[in-house]
Amino acid sequence: MAEAASVPSNNRPYADLPPISAALFEAKARKGLTFDEIAKAIGKDEIWLAAAFYGQAKFSSEELVKLAEVLDIPTASVQNELGAHWWPNRGGLGPMPPTDPVIYRLYESVLVYGHAIKAVIHEKFGDGIMSMIDCKVNVTKKPDPKGDRVVLTFDGKFLPYAKW
Amino acid sequence: MAEAASVPSNNRPYADLPPISAALFEAKARKGLTFDEIAKAIGKDEIWLAAAFYGQAKFSSEELVKLAEVLDIPTASVQNELGAHWWPNRGGLGPMPPTDPVIYRLYESVLVYGHAIKAVIHEKFGDGIMSMIDCKVNVTKKPDPKGDRVVLTFDGKFLPYAKW
Amino acid sequence: MAEAASVPSNNRPYADLPPISAALFEAKARKGLTFDEIAKAIGKDEIWLAAAFYGQAKFSSEELVKLAEVLDIPTASVQNELGAHWWPNRGGLGPMPPTDPVIYRLYESVLVYGHAIKAVIHEKFGDGIMSMIDCKVNVTKKPDPKGDRVVLTFDGKFLPYAKW
Amino acid sequence: MAEAASVPSNNRPYADLPPISAALFEAKARKGLTFDEIAKAIGKDEIWLAAAFYGQAKFSSEELVKLAEVLDIPTASVQNELGAHWWPNRGGLGPMPPTDPVIYRLYESVLVYGHAIKAVIHEKFGDGIMSMIDCKVNVTKKPDPKGDRVVLTFDGKFLPYAKW
Amino acid sequence: MAEAASVPSNNRPYADLPPISAALFEAKARKGLTFDEIAKAIGKDEIWLAAAFYGQAKFSSEELVKLAEVLDIPTASVQNELGAHWWPNRGGLGPMPPTDPVIYRLYESVLVYGHAIKAVIHEKFGDGIMSMIDCKVNVTKKPDPKGDRVVLTFDGKFLPYAKW
Amino acid sequence: MAEAASVPSNNRPYADLPPISAALFEAKARKGLTFDEIAKAIGKDEIWLAAAFYGQAKFSSEELVKLAEVLDIPTASVQNELGAHWWPNRGGLGPMPPTDPVIYRLYESVLVYGHAIKAVIHEKFGDGIMSMIDCKVNVTKKPDPKGDRVVLTFDGKFLPYAKW
Amino acid sequence: MAEAASVPSNNRPYADLPPISAALFEAKARKGLTFDEIAKAIGKDEIWLAAAFYGQAKFSSEELVKLAEVLDIPTASVQNELGAHWWPNRGGLGPMPPTDPVIYRLYESVLVYGHAIKAVIHEKFGDGIMSMIDCKVNVTKKPDPKGDRVVLTFDGKFLPYAKW
Amino acid sequence: MAEAASVPSNNRPYADLPPISAALFEAKARKGLTFDEIAKAIGKDEIWLAAAFYGQAKFSSEELVKLAEVLDIPTASVQNELGAHWWPNRGGLGPMPPTDPVIYRLYESVLVYGHAIKAVIHEKFGDGIMSMIDCKVNVTKKPDPKGDRVVLTFDGKFLPYAKW
Amino acid sequence: MAEAASVPSNNRPYADLPPISAALFEAKARKGLTFDEIAKAIGKDEIWLAAAFYGQAKFSSEELVKLAEVLDIPTASVQNELGAHWWPNRGGLGPMPPTDPVIYRLYESVLVYGHAIKAVIHEKFGDGIMSMIDCKVNVTKKPDPKGDRVVLTFDGKFLPYAKW
Amino acid sequence: MAEAASVPSNNRPYADLPPISAALFEAKARKGLTFDEIAKAIGKDEIWLAAAFYGQAKFSSEELVKLAEVLDIPTASVQNELGAHWWPNRGGLGPMPPTDPVIYRLYESVLVYGHAIKAVIHEKFGDGIMSMIDCKVNVTKKPDPKGDRVVLTFDGKFLPYAKW
Fold this sequence. Notes:
Ten copies of one chain form a homodecamer.
Chain A: H1 19-31, H2 35-42, H3 46-53, H4 61-71, H5 75-82, H6 101-125, E1 128-142, E2 149-160
Antiparallel strand pairs in A: 1-2
Helix pairs in contact in A: 2-3, 4-5
């Protein structure tokens, strides 16, 4: 647990987030908590929680109360900034194409496998899409003697195209 | 099984692929085969096979022979166009941001969940990336009474950043 | 009814569509039919039909048969090009921002009213989106002595954001 | 009704709006009013009102007086910032293509249905456009057992192209 | 009058126009006619006529007949390509920003004088725009001993912004 | 005449202008003067004056003195910021393509009529351009029972291309 | 003198030029002539002549006759393609930023020295520009024992900004 | 000599330069010195000096001492900001394509004459480039009764391409 | 060793880095240390160290302690800003294409030699890539009487493409 | 050695190269030669040779003769297309940012290590650049039990910035 921790709030992506976001990240670092630990405390998954830290999801009022508690920050300030009146302005956290290699590799998956994924979805489901709204995202660590592996899963509802 | 089938070879993405690619797609349609059926015939996964159809992966010489056989097209023509001398020029099949809604949703996953995925990878693995080279991609259909779901999985090796 | 009609198939958007698309447009012109008349003949709405002409929707096999009939073109050729093996590669028909004033005005509606629409959707429905997949689009003419009006309606399912 | 509420005024879109805009949004949140309630109080529609909050429309002097009253903020400050000398600098509130999924879906409607809408407008009205200046925009909620629907309507004057 | 004349139909802007457009330009050159002479023959202004040559305006059926006559080309071919079924797909003839110095100077007028023009329009007319649909464009030559001057005039209807 | 007036100096275009520019706009609002009234006071045209307010033209020393006088602001401050050492850094006040509908319509005139204007200039003047440096710009109001019209005129010197 | 010579007419920049341009370049290669030799034969400078070969300048009728003669190609074909009816569509020959290192260095001169050149022009001439229309461009070789030097000169008329 | 002078240090290009740069420009204005006068005082050419003011060149330690002296500003502050540890981050001072007409004309020279210059360099020197690193840039005023001319010269070393 | 040194922390790339980065660069300048000297003090290579200064690599806790020591800055402040909770957000330090000539030349190596490097890697290693994650970068000075040479080496692991 | 081999000459990068380039690649495949073997036959390095195949370097007349010989293709056709009159139009072979993962990793090296490389070059050499013109590029295979490594070396002349 760090005694003090700051994030570069004048840098991206923090500069593009509500000021309270920097406070959330700093409290997380000071408390020495993982996303998973915080997520469990408020009854959510770690990826969803991390997305919410980055302003990409909306906490309910109850979740904000629990969040303030687990992070030891005033409830009022999270309610004031991320309360019922706040809505995520999703995306827009960094450049596209991404310059960070971790995020770029995700982008590259669209470049290289996008058409294949589309073709197989059509073949298996018909004309429609995998929803990115009704979609759960998950990252797990798969130990492997040749080098651990990241297993990233998207579980999204199939939406058939309307015809009218 | 269609008696005849053509793909718009002067349109994207076909226009950006070797001419043999259109022939592969047309043979697949004429034979009424799924990617999975062709993939099984040459001992590969359907997503890898579909990627190879879109010029995003390289068939071995043995795979080309089996491919020609299962699709009933002359071996010589696939060897001539996609043989040992041919190397994938990956990516570049369509615009970025994608305009097709299926592919755009994948792109949107990077916009919305990219930072969360990166943060959790760092927390679980340290400073490094999920490889998109040593990575297997999979699409499965998960039946659900509220609407079937697409489960899309990336299983990629974690690569720690070199320090020297 | 024109005796002959051609569309500039080497120009956008025709050049970005399957070759059969030009044939559909030319047959429509030769037959002197409106989108509405063709749509009625195959049991669809005119906007959906027009979208399908522009390669933005997928005809079923039955619809292709009726289409060929109403347009007096060989069924085989539409089946060959737009049959079960063909999937729309949506979007990508023209530049964005659009240069054509009709389409630009739609784009401008996003620029000027996008945030207001988003804010009111959130207020009325909560955190989620209006689906553009399960969405019906409609254009009607509203006579007005000061100048007729175009009434353009999108009727799309609200999709709440998944939380997990 | 929140006791306090803030919006991230150093973030987009607030950072691109006159400083008074953040005050309007915060007062709305503190008063617990909907766009519709505020709109009714000044005799306007909710979408127009929301657009004006986002700097996309111009309040008349009388509307500013009523707005200050319903929101309990000093008339002088709204007059000082949004008075007769202020003109909307429309558009430019966020990136294009939009990264927020709500707004992106509107953008996608242009990608997918733009040409169809243009073609049907031409067929029904002739050579011209749907005005986005003399246009009213409306969002309503249509209850549906399979999931409520958003009905978004644009009612714009048809403008025939000048010939001279 | 040239005996033969060709335009580079595989180059922009001709490559982005219906094939008949190249024929119109070549006939004009062969006949040695100015835009003004052709325009007069069909009862239009030279700028409108030139715009129509560049696919930016729609000839009526009567105008096509007269056009074919004055240019000595078959009526059928202009009717076939530019008849009732053809609608202008405006804009998109060249890169933006323009690279050609003549067109770039027009673009530069927007860069340098755009805000001033907007401010004066607001001051003189209120909140609204100058229509580019109900607008007539004119180019005249003003002799001047220090060098002749180009007088370019846009005469467009003022459209006040709708409030609702 | 407003008692107080402010412009959003942290917003575009003000944020891209010298700080004194905001003071000029605010003084103009407080004094209740039009561009035309200020222009007359310093012996210039209103469009030129408005352009200078937007940092697109250079006041002479005498003009700065008169400007300070008519706006009731200290001469020293305009001389300090816009004096002999200041040179316009023209353009760059907003995005291109413009998002504001007023300015976009000017941009659209280049898209739609640019080639026609170029072609007629060549036909009337030969190979060269209309100067946007030695060019006077003018906006007038033309009353019309069907709706007043904006008449926008560019009067620019023709410059023949050098040959050497 | 080569017996045969071809240029890749399906590649840039040839693909963006009138077909006759490839013929000019090929004739030049076959005849073994330099730009300077051809230029002298038609009474022009080599840079102007090279620009004309690249479609960036307009030959007079007399110059076309001499050009055909010196290159031993039919006068009719140059008249047919580049005659009185042809006007340069300048710029647009390659990507910007340029990818070719020779042209990129010119572009880099604008990046690095553009503001300095502007500042010195203002200091020496006042508010205005160096014309790129009334401008002569010259390249000479300056022998230097440490490596020969390229001397590139632009001699352009100063144009003072209009005030009105 | 102005008693006070400021430059808009929150505007481009000043905002993209070290803070000391604004101080240099303001001191130059207060002292009433030209670039040439300052350049002579430190033994350099005026274009090089102006480039250095714009952060595009590196002063030696001795030059900084002389510069502080001629501009009457503390040596310590220029050493502190532009001393041995400071290296130019060249380019990036403004948008590309440039919006300012003076700088745009330079950019236009690349568009219009870039290929001609490249072709003549190749013809006179072989396969290689004109260095923009070992290059001297010069602006002189050439009086002309029809209007003074700007003569802009680049004198750069020819660098042949390595072959290995 | 400078007594004082500052870097333009409101300029790129410093403005895009954590605030502590400016402090690191300033301490390095004050202490008069090279990257190599600092790198040796913490047991790393100079290029890796320089990359870490630019926020492109992650210091371990031990390295931060040594870094603070060698630079004479408080350990707490580097731990607070660059400690365990901080992860590099790589890339994004400047525009692409780069405008700085040093960095542009690296970019140009990709433009000119990228395909050749890819082709030779494929020929020597098969279908795969050179890792930029498991890669060491080195810059050395090779004295040469005709001018010293920069030898830049990338030593990266070959990663074969997964097939599955 | 393949009996027949073709490359997709209508795809990038072949479509952007002279037609002879496809013939060179096909002959290389038919003869079963590596770049290294061909390079040795004409006395050059394999990377240079590969670059020349991709149109990024210029063969001398003698090299063309040897090339034709080793590839068993007519000397006349390479002389006709790539002879003395042909000059490389470097760069422009594919999109930037690159979409192919091999080439993207090179691009990523600029993103991640560009500033570090620049800083160390300045520290070791002073103000200047590493030439990409007088630069030799080399790829070697370094066997490694944990996976072979690609060693990519750039050996470029340091060019100090001119001061004048």
